[in-house]
Amino acid sequence: xxxxxxxxxxxxxxxxxxxxxxxxxxxxxxxxxxxxxxxxxxxxxxxxxxxxxxxxxxxxxxxxxxxxxxxxxxxxxxxxxxxxxxxxxxxxxxxxxxxxxxxxxxxxxxxxxxxxxxxxxxxxxxxxxxxxxxxxxxxxxxxxxxxxxxxxxxxxxxxxxxxxxxxxxxxxxxxxxxxxxxxxxxxxxxxxxxxxxxxxxxxxxxxxxxxxxxxxxxxxxxxxxxxxxxxxxxxxxxxxxxxxxxxxxxxxxxxxxxxxxxxxxxxxxxxxxxxxxxxxxxxxxxxxxxxxxxxxxxxxxxxxxxxxxxxxxxxxxxxxxxxxxxxxxxxxxxxxxxxxxxxxxxxxxxxxxxxxxxxxxxxxxxxxxxxxxxxxxx
Length: 378
Prior knowledge:
By secondary structure, the protein is an alpha/beta fold. It folds into two domains: 3-26 and 280-376; 32-160 and 198-257, Spore Coat Polysaccharide Biosynthesis Protein SpsA, Chain A (Alpha-Beta Complex), CATH 3.90.550.10. It contains twelve helices and twelve strands. The protein has a seven-stranded mixed sheet, with helices on both faces. The longest helix is centred in the last third of the chain and has 29 residues, at 308-336. It is globular, with a radius of gyration of 21 Å. It starts with a helix and ends with a strand.
């Protein structure tokens, strides 16, 4: 490779990445809040659960504590062949809380989260559908906040903020910061008019709009991605102005970080496994730009161990990437009131670059497992 190319290629990659992050930060700043709502429409909350005996009780209690009329929402839990006491805990909760419209369904024949969601959608009676995960807890104003965004903006799909709870220790804090970058990027992209990602732990949509979609909206043949594929189907059918993000603390959903590095890596491999099924150009271009920027950072660091001048490249690229990331990250950190994470941004940058590059390169070939179930490979 010629000397001009060695300079031009890193400059183009860096410039493209800086532009992308600037657009996402601007999108985040343009997002509105959650206006007050007079509850009228019925809401169905869907939870797909597999082996969540440790968490499902807290999740259900947070839904029972909602500041939303009890007769205006229902909770549909679908047990995905749990081998623990998940179903029994849900049944006991139903007995102890008869005032909550809570129903338990069991998978028959099909398996997996997408099949569980499809089963619940067949039973849902709400005008709006909200989804969360069995290992999550929602704020008391969650339903009202998510519905208010859909109604005030006439949206057919709304994504909501998700953040980690119980983040003591450096490993969990690093996960928290990395996860914040993902959620913030998804929020910023929605605000910028080119939705890139969302999280099934906190999203909502119009049931009527869902039923109007053509074909396989959830991409049932793909391991993961029930959330992103549905959002992209809504985007294709209704346009970006009908996709919204709930930027308010009442819409926050809390989940736990991975317990071990192995769990963390397997989770990210599962998320990455769906990437080859994407056909949305802005998503493909953005993911490619992020990969190239992280790969460039890794390459310059490794090369710098052998050729000192590349270490200067590494430090310069690290500085530019950090400055590009800072506005979006700092904005979302302030939103979640996790200011302690700010000091981690600089040391986390090279770590995230290494793992992101590794996962991107191996995500299509490595075995993927989830809760004792082999999803691919192995």
